[in-house]
Amino acid sequence: MFNNQSRIYKDKEIIKNNKELESDILDSMVDWVRVIDTNCNIIYSNRAMQEGVEDKSLENNKCYDIFGRVDACRRCLTETTIATGEISEKEEKIGERYFSMKSSPVMDSEGNIYAIVEVLRDITRERKLEKQIILKNEKMSRDINFARKIQRKLLPKAGNYKNINFDYIYLPSEMLSGDMFDIFYIDDEHIGFYISDVVGHGVTASIMTMFIKQTLGTSGNKFTSPKEAIAYLHENFLGLDLDCESYFTIFYGVMNTSNKVLKFVNGGHNSIPILARDSGIIKLEGTGFPIMSFFSKAKYKEETINLEKNDSLILYTDGLIEAKNKDSEFYGYHRLRKIVNNSLKDREKLIVKIKNDVDKFRYKELEDDFTLLQLNIN
Fold it and tell me: Which 3 state secondary structure label does DSSP give 118?
């Protein structure tokens, strides 16, 4: 312990008596350091700066000479620091390198400024990385915008499909959506329709919606039995070999246009569709698992209901019922049911009324994709 204290004392004495200490410290720094007088002349520069600009005689030159200028900078840090007595900062390009500059006043015992110390830190790598990120983000934005246009082109057109009048409201929470829906002719007597909700949203969820659309839009739409169509969809999904965290829910229905019998299957879709008719409201409840790889085989129970003229089917995703107000309360099924129940005598633009009611209720922007369908039976 005695030897250790002696060494510390000896080191302190060496430091105290070393007149070159300040210069040694500054020369050991990787940042460029220079001292400038009040006339903007360089009176000192450390080794890193001299080597960096390949000039051993920076002293007595003007501070702006290393920037290749013949006059002072438009925003001169030296002049700013002298005028304010405060630390000033800016960025400057020297050749092909970018520097973060910080200027600090040097004062005498009476508080008078007689010199300025400037530290220049090389931030070239950071700025080049920022530029690369910006360029990549611009490309990604273009790609996402292109994918957004394609996704919207895949949506069905509103209008009449035999004795069904179809309309919808579709609002992705981001540029790309994890919601997908469709309505299509299966044969001369059957019309199929579905609404699905992929877990998450954004790019990965939107790619899954493409899979759903493609699968059900080719061989998948040949089934007049909803449970067979969902079984076919599940089988093709297993072929993707995804983990259990990737899944989606779906409500799938097939209506016989001759007798207006609706068969439907619920594949884990917790946003229960509503059948609104003049006499009241019916929930189209069904049980079934989401489409996911956890189940190698999944059986779905097919439900049946007779539709009537002037019935309205309301289908939606959980972005609607999970909209929150300023107290973080969910809009919920009970509010949806109430607005539908109050509109039984005028259901022509019911989805618009629902959307307006949700907008009045919610406090923030949509946190999830918002999809709302209306099928009026003629």
Answer: strand
CB 178 within 8 A of CB 371: no
pLDDT at 137: 82
For residue 112, give Cα distances in angstroms to 33, 53, 105, 261, 355: 21, 31, 9, 93, 67
Helical H segments across the chain, by residue range: 2-17, 21-27, 47-52, 77-84, 124-153, 203-217, 226-238, 318-321, 332-341, 350-361
pLDDT of residue 321 exceeding 90, the answer is yes
Non-local (6+) Cβ contacts of 128 within 8 A are none
Q: How far is 348 from 270, CA to CA, in rounded Å?
A: 25
Greatest pairwise CA separation for the chain in angstroms = 106
Closest CA to 89 of 51, 116, 57: 116
Q: Check residue 5 and give its pLDDT.
A: 54
DSSP 134: H
68-73 long-range CB contacts below 8 Å, 24 or more apart? 72/40
26-49 mean pLDDT: 88
Q: Between 356 and 288, whose confidence is greater?
A: 356
pTM of the entire predicted model: 0.69
| Angle (CA) 240 195 203, round 5° | 50
Judge contact between 372 and 340, C-beta under 8 A.
no
Contacts of 211 (CB under 8 A, 6+ apart): 236, 237, 240
Residue of higher predicted confidence among 46 and 372: 372
Q: How far apart are the two ends of the chain, measured CA to CA in Å?
A: 98
d(Cα 186, Cα 222) in Å, to the nearest integer?
Answer: 6
Per-residue model confidence (pLDDT) at position 19: 53
Element (H, E) at 248: strand 247-256
State how beta strands 291-292 and 247-256 pair: antiparallel
Question: What secondary structure does DSSP assign to 260-302, as a single string?
Answer: -EEEEEEEB--S--EEEETTEEEE-------EETT-SS---PP
Phi, psi of 341 (to 5 degrees): -60, -35
DSSP secondary structure string for all residues of 78-106? HHHHHHH-S-EEEEEEETTEEEEEEEEEE
- For residue 143, what are the contacts with CB-CB under 8 A and spacing of at least 6? none
